[in-house]
Design a protein that fits this description.
single chain, 3-stranded antiparallel sheet, 3 strands
Length: 203
């Protein structure tokens, strides 16, 4: 890499050539405070993710901090999700939600095969002491790890840090009002009729 050149990443693979290690992809948002304490101060927000390798050929995500600027379609979808009358439920339409926070091309015709994504799970995670939930504690937090080092075990060392000052984690929590999962119904193509079965002559 040229230290004098800064270019947006266009490949989300953590070891993609010609990018910094684990650089990931560009994420943009016109709103401030989309993560961490600034988000908490606004009373949280709404995170939305669309995984669609077929129609959109992308994984797209949105973040709407606070309780303003939430697209009406998304708001209506959430408010009607539990309505026992299915005909009154509003279907989410991400095309009405504006510019995605993150956009990752996936599927046919892109550089990322849809086959990389299967057996998906939803995981809520608080990764203390650096990335990968403490396993990189010595690398990501060198100053703290010197003070609270338990042999060569980064997780035990991370636990020692947390026990020493639990107050530092008072803002580290999930408070979830709701979780909604939608699946687009698949439209199966109607098979063409065989002329021989309909009594028509074949040319």
């Amino acid at each position: 890499m040229d230290f004098n050149t800064s270019l947006p990443a266009d490949n989300c693979y953590v070891t993609a050539p010609h990018q910094w290690a684990n650089q990931g992809c560009v994420a943009v948002n016109k709103d401030e405070g989309t993560i961490g304490q600034p988000l908490n101060e606004q009373g949280g927000g709404i995170y939305a993710l669309e995984w669609d390798p077929d129609k959109e050929r992308a994984i797209r995500s949105w973040v709407f901090p606070g309780h303003s600027n939430i697209p009406s379609n998304l708001q209506d979808s959430i408010q009607t999700a539990s309505n026992p009358d299915k005909s009154k439920r509003v279907v989410p339409n991400p095309s009405e939600w504006g510019l995605p926070y993150g956009y990752f091309a996936v599927g046919e015709g892109t550089g990322c095969s849809a086959g990389h994504f299967k057996n998906m799970r939803l995981v809520f995670n608080l990764a203390f002491c650096g990335t990968v939930a403490g396993n990189r504690y010595f690398t990501d937090c060198p100053a703290e790890s010197k003070l609270f080092k338990k042999g060569k075990d980064p997780v035990l060392s991370c636990n020692a840090l947390i026990k020493s000052n639990p107050e530092m984690l008072k803002e580290a929590y999930w408070k979830i009002r709701g979780l909604y999962v939608y699946e687009r119904s698949l439209m199966k193509p109607v098979p063409e009729a065989d002329p021989s079965e309909s009594g028509q002559e074949q040319n």
